[in-house]
Amino acid sequence: MNRLISSAPALSLLFAALLLAGCATSTPLDTSSVPATPAAFKEQAGSVAAATPASGEAVGQGVWWSVFADPVLNQLVEQASRNNNSVQVAAGRLLQARAIARQTDASRAPQVGLGAGVTRQSNTDTGHVPATVVSAGASLSYEVDLFGKLAGASNAASLDAASREALLRSTRLLVQADVAQTYLSLRALDAERGLVNSTLQAYRNTLRLTEVRFREGDVAELDVARVRSEVASTESEALALDRRRAELEHAVAVLVGEVASTFQIAPVEWATALPVIPAGVPSSVLVRRPDIAAAQTTLQAAQARVGVAKTAWFPSISLTATGGYAAPEVGDLFKLSMRSWGIGALLSLPILDGGQREAGVQNANAELDIALANYREQILVAFRDVEDQLSALRLLAEQSEAQSRSVASSSRATLLSDTRYRNGFVSQLELLDAQRSELRNRRQALQVKAAQYLSTVGLIRALGGGWA
After folding, report:
1. Residues 4-22: tens digit of each pLDDT
2. DSSP per-residue letters across 242-289
3. Angle, vertex CA 203, rays to CA 199 and CA 206, nearest 5
């Protein structure tokens, strides 16, 4: 009875400590500063889901590049998904995070070890003869996680691994989009090069005809000089396009993990399909994007670490047990009379630490503030990316229509100028101006078309890898 009464204050203190620990380790997160979810996208009708944590799986992130129906593009994107160095670095960091999570979680389990040793010892005061002691035994230690310190650290490490997994998906999506945009830019450049080269050939034919007419005295030397200038200028533009194509081809080589010196994409006709954007973009943009998922789990990990830092104010309890044998001779080592054992418990509570624990809590709170700010930023960037691409696609569609009218008018003007020039009603200068204007408008039309493809890829990336 006396023992029960005497232990009551200790139990009361322990219960109070547990209550305080529960209050200290629970860290409510103030999300009032998180941007409010808009009711719809400004550039396109469709509701938007609230910013809830994304699951560990990639939502809607599949083989989105197949909507372009381009076999070469499919091959390049799949190759980059396997061989790109940025993807491999992100994969390596994920493996590191998972290993750290397993290492952190292992501290919650009992630690068992085996040991053996030989000791040569003597006592000079008593004059004993030096003796040899042979020992063998096992040890067990276990830290009691009364206040959730170990569980919190394990949870934070697991969230770090989940964040790295989301970052791997984000890196893979980024690389896939870069490959698609670079490849589509190259195909658009091929079409533009074909247009410029065909125009250059027409100019060369005109130059040969003009030189013949000059030798026959039908035209002045000024006409020859004008056509020669146009040929040289167009040749320069063709070479600039060749240089730009080489750069794009080398960029694709790096993205897919190949040496630029041996990598080649053969020029072919640009037949890549342009996907049709559905009437409403997905309402779950915030739970589809892997970068949002990474920011969310990083925020949760920082929140968990605040609780872990607060547990430093509470005592830690460690249990130990040892057992084994010790004897002066190896043959006597495992006799029952030579066995020994021991158990123990250690309670430790720092009293004065110079502000170390308080600094640890402040540091954890600062990390939480940083993670919350990054999460807010990712949300703002996500909606900006979607709005950017939606507005670009809308305006590019209108620009494409206007540019088509411009191409049709300039083509008609070139046809009429050529007829009038052949009949001697206008000078060669007017014909060259008409041809130059048509070439410029056709090139601009190709550039607008290329921008539509690039913005489509950009929208897919902004939506987290597709709109299905």
Report:
1. 333 344 334 333 444 444 4
2. HHHHHHHHHHHHHHTT--TTT------------PPPPSS--S-HHHH-
3. 140
